[in-house]
Amino acid sequence: MKQLFLQEAEKNQVFPIGGALWTRIHPEDRVETPYTSWTFDTTTTRMPEFTAPGLGRESNTVTIDVDLNGDDSGVLYALGGSAGGLTMFMEDGKLKYE
C-alpha cells in the first residue's frame, strides 16, 4: 500500500509532501503583490490572498470612510485566506476587531 501511494503521489506531482510549510521557513520564496496601496469600494468582494495586503506579517494602515448613525451594525473590513483572517465591524454602534 505504501509503495502504491508513493507511485501515485509521484505521478500526480504531490511531492514534497508538506511543501506548503516551506514559505514559513523561507518567506523570501512567498509570492507577493507589488502593490503598496489599495482602494476598496462596495464593488470589491474578493481578491486572491497573494494580491491582498499582507496583514499579520507587516505593518498596515487601514482608513475607512463611512457615515454612521449611532447604533449601526455590520462588517466594515474583512480579510481572510488559508492563513486565517480578521474582521473589523460595528455591533450596536461599537467598533470591534477580531
Q: Would you give an account of this structure?
A:
It is a single chain. With 98 residues, the chain is an alpha+beta fold. It has one domain. It is built from two helices and three strands, in the order H-H-E-E-E. It has helices spanning 2-11, 22-25; strands at residues 74-81, 84-91, 94-97. Strands 1-2-3 form a three-stranded antiparallel sheet, with no helix packed on it. A hairpin with a 2-residue loop joins strand 2 and strand 3 (94-97). It is elongated, with a radius of gyration of 20 Å. The mean pLDDT is 82.
* DSSP strand content: 15-25%
The tally of strands reads 3
* Strand line-up in the sheet with most strands: 1-2-3
How many helical stretches? 2
| Cα-to-Cα separation, first versus last residue | 44 Å
The helical percent reads 10-25%
How many domains?
A: 1
Report the order of strands and helices.
HHEEE
Structural class: alpha+beta
What gross morphology would you assign?
elongated
Uncertain segments: none
Taking all Cα atoms into account, the compactness measure Rg is: 20 Å
Q: Major beta sheet, specifics?
A: 3 strands, antiparallel
- Mean pLDDT, nearest integer? 82
Give me the secondary-structure topology.
Blueprint: H1 2-11, H2 22-25, E1 74-81, E2 84-91, E3 94-97
Antiparallel strand pairs: 1-2, 2-3
